[in-house]
């Protein structure tokens, strides 16, 4: 009596309005694509709310919607970005990411083959990080009411008792980053604008939870961490400056940046500190724990180029300053306007 | 040094791309609108992930994206719907809703005055239900890349130990609903299609957590509950039939429906059981607990018209049957196609 078994064509099929209508077509899409790719015991509960095990730890929750354009870019796609991005928001807070929800908003006519690629890479990304996609939602809107697909991921993580993040930075602390700045921003922009010289640059999208666990084990005194996504390094530093009434002094020469990224920035008049990163973490660390921290970071695949990029300094006014490569200090300001829309 | 104090105009202002760029404009929007309206100690942590207190209970997580069109409709708007909807997804699972995340995707040019109305009603809805909006995210996309505003809400709830939901329905159990069917669907459709005869119908959007707490206290044996949103009563019943290999027999004459809703359905060739509801709960309850259940429901403002609408019956094949008003039985099928796109 219940006929939900008709097979969707993942090769030539497209999304139509019925896939969001709460009827048989939606059930087919869920069963034949989402459940197959994301399969786990939680998702198989198949209720609107998913029951999760008791936890005796403090919890962390993070949410992000992803609207990146193009959907597929060198180094990744919107799906992988959506999984890694929310994992990273939890990880930089000191949490161990455990569960993700996923909300899709799909455009009528969207190719099922593309959706399958996106969903498959989400499943792979979640698996790599030991995270379960436990519940989801799919909406379909008419052609031109959304640009392809937008994805929300919301995550829950657990915090071990010994984690004391976040703490205010102290004068004398060092600022660390795990590698090259600006790759994701330039990868998207080069792909979008057809800049051939920069097409070798791939997005740095990656889940940082493994690296961060090693960092916290080696340097439990880390004051605070952030992933410099939208708004780049400058946004993270300025937010901290405001939040903690602190002054940071960055050292331009110490900020790891690929040559092609620097060239792209010069050509387009962009500041590399405003560019989004999707696999980077900035940490503020007491100077006495810097050595063990750098050594575990450099031993990790995602931290080979870990560098000290600045100091917490004693100034009257909070803010972000930088010693430039040619000497002299300048103010590192927030991005103004929107140099790179829909970067994540 | 940090200039985030310029005042946004909530009267004539509009969203521009910079409000999603991770810079100063985004910080202004967050501080002057979201933080002001949603204000609570969690949100004030102002980190990407929010730290939540330890809980020794089982947790429930639910997510939903809202794309309803129009954004403002009789009885509510997209914001209220987004808060109530996710609260309800948790409540029908037996959880006490605690925390919500909110993800906005905004169209360039969207009026700040409309956004403020939406955000204000979200704050009110959360407050009414004792739920905290603890973290959020805002993306802005170019004009015509999204239709106005889409909202994702994801919720976390706690389950008391004595809650045993969901259990399989048993032959002899009764099916209960708390009131009139189809109001939300007709409210949206009438507004969209300018059907004057049905303009008195308002959406039933409401948070069901209070009613459901009373229901579980009076009838702890309730087997399972669902809110019949997209796909309506027919989707809930068919999903259960499939999930539990059960047969349900509904009684058409017993299903509470407003006259104007019935007329609208007849005019448009719609089945009221396919229409979305946003303040209704269907419960399957052992017959011996029906009396206390109905009496607490009818004493609650959201359950005045609580009714028994059918039975779990002993048939060979799982499915959903209905005794019609004129006698005879018919099959209650899933909605097919998309009679009511973007209903939630």
Which architecture of the largest domain in chain A does the CATH hierarchy give at level 2? Alpha-Beta Complex
Strand content of chain A: 15-25%
Which structural class best describes the helix and strand composition of chain A? alpha+beta
CATH superfamily of the largest domain in chain A: PurM-like C-terminal domain
Structural summary, described in words:
Two copies of one chain form a homodimer. Chain A is of the alpha+beta class and 344 residues long. Chain A has two domains: 17-159, 2-Layer Sandwich (60s Ribosomal Protein L30, Chain: A); 174-331, Alpha-Beta Complex (Phosphoribosyl-aminoimidazole Synthetase, Chain A, domain 2). In chain A, 29% of the residues lie in helices and 24% in strands. Chain A has eight helices and 14 strands. Chain A has helices spanning 24-38, 78-91, 112-128, 183-193, 209-218, 232-244, 259-268, 290-298, and strands at residues 49-52, 58-66, 72-73, 76-77, 96-107, 132-141, 149-159, 174-177, 224-226, 247-251, 282-285, 307-313, 319-323, 329-331. A seven-stranded mixed β-sheet of chain A has the order 9-11-8-12-10-13-14, with helices on both faces. In chain A, strands 2-7-5-6 form a four-stranded mixed β-sheet, covered by helices on one side. In chain A, strands 3-4 form a two-stranded antiparallel sheet. In chain A, helix 1 packs parallel to helix 3 (112-128), helix 2 (78-91) runs parallel beside helix 3 (112-128) and helix 5 (209-218) packs antiparallel against helix 8. The longest helix of chain A is centred in the middle third of the chain and has 17 residues, at 112-128. Chain A is globular and about 65 Å long. The termini of chain A are far apart. The mean pLDDT of chain A is 94.
């Amino acid at each position: 009596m219940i006929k939900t078994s008709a097979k969707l064509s993942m090769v030539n099929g497209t999304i139509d309005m019925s896939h969001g209508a709460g009827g048989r077509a939606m059930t087919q899409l869920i069963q034949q694509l989402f459940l197959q790719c994301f399969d786990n015991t939680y998702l198989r509960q198949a209720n609107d709310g998913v029951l999760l095990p008791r936890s005796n730890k403090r919890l962390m929750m993070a949410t992000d919607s992803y609207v990146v354009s193009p959907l597929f870019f060198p180094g990744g796609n919107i799906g992988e970005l959506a999984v890694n991005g929310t994992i990273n928001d939890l990880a930089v807070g000191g949490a161990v990411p455990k569960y993700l929800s996923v909300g899709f908003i799909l455009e009528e006519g969207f190719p099922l083959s593309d959706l399958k690629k996106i969903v498959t890479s989400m499943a792979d990304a979640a698996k790599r990080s030991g995270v379960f996609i436990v519940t989801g939602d799919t909406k379909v809107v008419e052609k031109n009411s959304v640009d392809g697909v937008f994805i929300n991921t919301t995550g829950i993580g657990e915090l071990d008792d010994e984690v004391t993040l976040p703490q205010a930075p102290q004068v004398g602390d060092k600022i660390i980053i795990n590698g090259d700045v600006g790759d994701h921003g330039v990868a998207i922009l080069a792909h979008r604008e057809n800049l051939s010289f920069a097409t070798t640059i791939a997005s740095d999208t990656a889940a940082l939870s493994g690296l961060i666990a090693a960092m916290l084990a080696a340097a439990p005194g880390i004051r605070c961490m952030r992933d410099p996504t939208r708004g780049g390094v400058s946004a993270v530093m300025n937010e901290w400056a405001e939040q903690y009434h602190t002054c940071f002094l960055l050292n331009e020469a110490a900020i790891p940046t690929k040559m092609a990224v620097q060239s792209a920035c010069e050509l387009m008049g962009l500041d590399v500190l405003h560019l989004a990163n999707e696999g980077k973490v900035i940490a503020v660390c007491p100077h006495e724990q810097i050595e063990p921290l750098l050594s575990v970071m450099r031993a990790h695949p995602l931290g080979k180029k870990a560098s000290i990029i600045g100091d917490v300094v004693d100034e009257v006014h909070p803010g972000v300053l930088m010693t430039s490569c040619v000497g002299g200090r300048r103010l590192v300001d927030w991005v103004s306007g929107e140099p790179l829309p829909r970067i994540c």
